[in-house]
Amino acid sequence: MNHSAEESGFRAMRAALTAALHGVRGANPLVGAVLTNESGDILHVGWHRGSGTPHAEVDVLEQARRAGTDLNRTHLYVTLEPCNHYGRTGPCSKAIADAGIPKVTYAETDGTGAAGGAEFLASHGIDMHAGLLREEAHDINARWWASQQETRPFVTAKVAASLDGQVSALDGTSQWITGPEARAHGHTLRSRADAILVGTGTALSDNPQLSARDTGGHPLGRQPLRAVMGIRTIPAGAHLNQGPGHLHLDTRDPREALRRLAQKGIGHVLIEGGPSIISAFLTEDLVDEMYWYTAPTLLSEGRSATHGLSVPTLAKAYRLAIDPASGEADGTREGIGRLGNDTLTHLAPQRPHERK
């Protein structure tokens, strides 16, 4: 099937952007890749599945090799400039050059220390093109770029609340507001993060394990670092002191907590509460995405999910929007999903200048 070069290019890059949404944004950004033939037909689609897994370009190259595709007659489309550094995986730029792909188009230039792939590939005679659907590619990783610019971990906040925004009843009971489906989704989020962070108030009142478990209560394969933020001491018999223990961040300053976590090599933090901790991070504009689970339950007088967030007037409201990276991979359809009787909303806090 023949397509105009422009038409097939847009089609391929849109497919790469859609593929990127199947990945996990956190320590690494969302990235998708597509291989086409000389006529513009899409042959293979790949994406990055999260920190420590093959990058999108390598994923699509492995598919092509298994299928016996002649890579010397292909065009690679990728949503982010191929990396040019050795991390947990090798540089994608070298993998592309070694594969013999003659032409590469990428949407957005890499502004991190992994940059330089385009220059490397061009120096090896590969025809390079940049900027196709750049704005769309940037949008799905906008808050990830913000965390990189601020040299801090990417921050995900998770809230489970009643329909009227309470996370506990008047007597303090909170287990469980949401149903098993929502809790299972929350454990999936835990398994994707490098660290789970709660305040000492939550650690003392709920005595959480902060482990990632399946529906049968068994540990999932990937376990995050367990971290507690605050001044108070955690009792020796607490769940957090069992097994591998936890990291106690003796500070109430969100930026200081993130600085210390970054020093430990943490690239993605999941904040689970309590309300005061989440509100403190929101106030400092340090929440990059939020998963809000809403149960069809009314608690009236209880503890607000955002207790401590100061909003003196509607004009100063803390506004959020559906995260552009929402999709089936995160359990939603255009940012909203149903989990049993509960509703999941995937949100991205607006930057301060966008809240006017």
Short note summarizing the structure:
Helices cover about 25% and strands about 25% of the residues. With about 350 residues, it is an alpha/beta fold. The protein is elongated and about 65 Å long.
Helix content: 25-40%
Please give the CATH architecture of the largest domain.
3-Layer(aba) Sandwich
Which segments are poorly predicted (pLDDT under 50) over 5 or more consecutive residues? none
Output the structural class: alpha/beta
CATH topology of the largest domain: Dihydrofolate Reductase, subunit A
Number of helices in the DSSP assignment = 10
Q: What would CATH call the class of the largest domain? A: Alpha Beta
Number of strands: 16
Shape: elongated
The total number of structural domains is 2
Q: What average pLDDT do the residues reach?
A: 91
Alpha-carbon Rg, integer = 22 Å
Q: Sketch the major β-sheet.
A: 9 strands, mixed
The CATH H-level homologous superfamily of the largest domain: Dihydrofolate Reductase, subunit A
Amino- and carboxy-terminal Cα gap = 48 Å
List its salient traits.
single chain, 356 residues, alpha/beta, Cytidine Deaminase, domain 2, Dihydrofolate Reductase, subunit A, 2 domains, 9-stranded mixed β-sheet, 5-stranded mixed β-sheet, 10 helices, 24% strand, elongated
Notes on the protein architecture:
The chain is built from ten helices and 16 strands. With 356 residues, it is an alpha/beta fold. It has two domains: 5-140, Cytidine Deaminase, domain 2, CATH 3.40.140.10; 146-354, 3-Layer(aba) Sandwich (Dihydrofolate Reductase, subunit A), CATH 3.40.430. Strands 6, 8, 9, 10, 11, 12, 14, 15 and 16 form a nine-stranded mixed sheet that branches. Strands 2-1-3-4-5 form a five-stranded mixed sheet, sandwiched between helices. Strands 7-13 form a two-stranded antiparallel ribbon. Helix 3 packs parallel to helix 4 (117-123). The longest helix is centred in the N-terminal third of the chain and has 16 residues, at 5-20. The radius of gyration is 22 Å and the shape is elongated. The mean pLDDT is 91.
